[in-house]
Amino acid sequence: MKFKVIIITLIAILVLCIFATVLIGYSNLKYTSQNAVLRYISQHPQNVAVACFNPNEPQRGFYHNNAETFPLASTFKVTILLGYAEQVAVGGLDPAEIIPVSALDAFYLPGTDGGAHPEFLKSLGDGRTSLTLDEVTDGMIIFSSNAATDYLLSRLKTVDWVELYGRLGLEKTSLPHSYLGLYLYMTNHETLLYDLESLGPEATLAEQTRLEQLFVKDEAWRAIETRYATNLSNQAPLDVQKNITAEFGVRASADDLAKMMLAAYGYSDALTPAAQTIARQHLEWPMQLNPQNATIFKALGVKSGAWPAVLTSAWYAEPLKYEPRVLVVLYRNLPDDYWNAWLAGMSQQTLEINVLNTANCALFANALTPIEP
Which neighbouring-strand residues pair with 297? Predict the structure, then answer.
């Protein structure tokens, strides 16, 4: 009898293992394989933007929804990086300036960045109470710390963004504004949850700025808000997050992001050579963090972003064996199951890296070009 029970138990375990394997295989086929990503974008072309081209021959590239404005999430931080690079290049900012960690923490709202800011501080090493402005910029680009970004933006008051956008040729890019203010706008202890029925642009940026300044400058207000934010029951529901980031978050087109990458890599005279060097030093963190990339690429720079239902990336790559490529890919209105699977496995970026490895835009072109009847 005991032997029979063991056999039945083993069979049950085996069935469960087979079932789990089938589920994993199904998930890979439906969500996370390269074919799954290509199939998704071919079925949802209206919610994907692509600019993929050799910067020496942009007229021969592949473009899809490239002039349309999309929400960017953290990929927008390339814009702030370019403003910072210019200020350092002209001596307006010193990258070696020592900044107390507390100055960044004043911009940190728990639960709004997926743990990026704490991970960034952890990377500095135990016991650090200060860091350089250059390290703050790495925190913005490599770790995507919103607190580092908002602190850096607060130091760029002298940047003439309209003039810079004009030089870069940007046409669909929003002016920089606070990530902290955007999240406080969703919900905070003073005004509580944003009412989706009143969704509209009236005085939105002014209110975001007011809330950000309260958080940064009023320690008592910040303490109350931090306690409020760390209570999971007070977090904004997913539909509110999607609507607020889509309606009021930073935005740009794939074309505009491509222009930023081209400027950073010297394909236009929008930035001085000194500013280009500074921007590239921060964008090329994959070359610094993973020496193996040097066996494939001469240069590889990237900034990515994620908001609910949004995934975005802007790349510049010089493969050792091929011509350089600029690649910008923007997704919006992603269903929750795809967004969760892709964010966990970086499935969409696996496809993007494959395109860059081979300097071949045909994968996107074949998926997004309508077949003639």
Answer: 319
